[in-house]
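Sharing in case it's useful to others searching the archive later.

Someone asked me privately for the predicted structure of ABC transporter substrate-binding protein, so I'm posting the question and my answer publicly. Question first, with the sequence:
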Amino acid sequence: MPPQRIISVVPSQTELLFDLGLDQAIVGITKFCIHPAEKVKDKVKVGGTKTLHLDQIHDLKPDFILANKEENTREQIEELQRHYPVHVTDVNTVPDALAMIREVSELFGKGRKGEELAKQIEDTFYDFKSVQSSGPSVAYFIWRKPYMVAANQTFIHSMLELAGFQNKFGGRTRYPEVTEADLKTAQPELILLSSEPYPFSEKHTAELQEICPSSKIVLVDGEIFSWYGSRLLKAADYIQQLWKSLGLL
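And my answer, the predicted structure tokens:
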């Protein structure tokens, strides 16, 4: 029998579970699980992704916990594994995300629906194969003070590649800090300021424009580039609109 009392501690995977029709089985989520808005508002919040309230989790008596290697802390996950079945996903690329969708769907008895969803996402991405390697060089910012960017071995990097952008910091790994000197040397054609985890806004563009005067600076929806569940269905349209706004299509 599939799990009946699920706690999901990763926002993108929580949205996936709801989209698979598991509304009734979900008993707990994190405070960062904000989609779908009309359904998450009534679920118990068990803290943040890296600050889980273990006592609340114990009170909910879950029979399954869905986590992620990067988004949750090793210490808390290992503690939870002493008490409950915990499935820890590890998603670094778009193919990883599609495999995760299929795997998680099977775990919860929704294999057919998960396969349909994964194929839908694959179909929406098909057109991007023709633009790969032809787009501008980019720096994708995730943090300020210090500046941090998404580099290789991250899901964001995989999304940038899929969208046809050339990551100026693709020679580095994970989420490196970058200095003003690094940026002046890199001079990316395009700077993407993500809405999360740091909430970049219009007021932050001037400071970066001063460092990289020739770069075009654009605010982007971080969920599109970093949520690796069913939100990927929205990614192709968003990226196409981004390309149009940049005059690339």
